[in-house]
Structures are given as structure tokens and as C-alpha cells.
Specification:
Order of helices and strands: HHHH
Shape: elongated
Structural class: mainly alpha
Number of strands: 0
Strand content: under 5%
Distance between the termini: 9 Å
Helix content: over 70%
Length: 124
Amino acid sequence: MIYWSVLIGVLGVFGTVGALAYLKRREDRLVVAYSWLLGLAALAPAWLVGILAILGQLPLEVIDTPLPRSVLFSSATALLGVIFTDFFHRRLQARDIAPRWMTLWLLGVAAFIPPWIIALWALS
């Protein structure tokens, strides 16, 4: 499953960069508006595949099996990553600085890098 998660992550990164290039050709205002969200969407599916692979390893017979700590830690890290990057995203927009689309996209991608690494590490 590590292979599939990495493949989905690479496809997500290239797919969102392609979507941003398409939006940039159409209208520059849309690129800045959606670049953070597309950055989140780049690695979120790959992280989710990793989490679901960890959960798929749990035994089905025991109903009261606690969740592995790696799932809880990775999920908490993902939530905190989205909250912190949204804070910085809003802070950049509140200033009269016009952030570049690549900066906002990288900010969105950075939200899911730590939880994805935690999920991949727990799978290995």
C-alpha cells in the first residue's frame, strides 16, 4: 500500500500543478483564490490511502479494538496542519501583500506532508 500512496501523492502533486496552470491561463484571480485548496488536495488523497491501509490491518473479529496511535497521531497532525496553514493563508491575505500562487500552493501541500510521512512510516 505504500506504493499506491506514493503514486497517488505524485499524481496529486502533478495534477494540481496542471490544474493551477489551466486556471492561470483562464483567469489569474482564480489561481490565487484556489491555490491553497489545490495544495491541500494534492496530498490529502495519498494520506487518506495510508490511513485506510493502516486501518485495514486491524482484526475484524474484535469490535473493541482501539485505534492505533499512528492513526490518531497522523489525523491530529493533519488537522493541525490545515488549521495552521489556514491561519498563515488568511494572514497573508489580510496584509496587502499579494501572495504568489506557488507560495499558497506550497502552504497547502505543507499541511499534509507531516501526517502523510507518519502514515507511511506506520505502514513500513
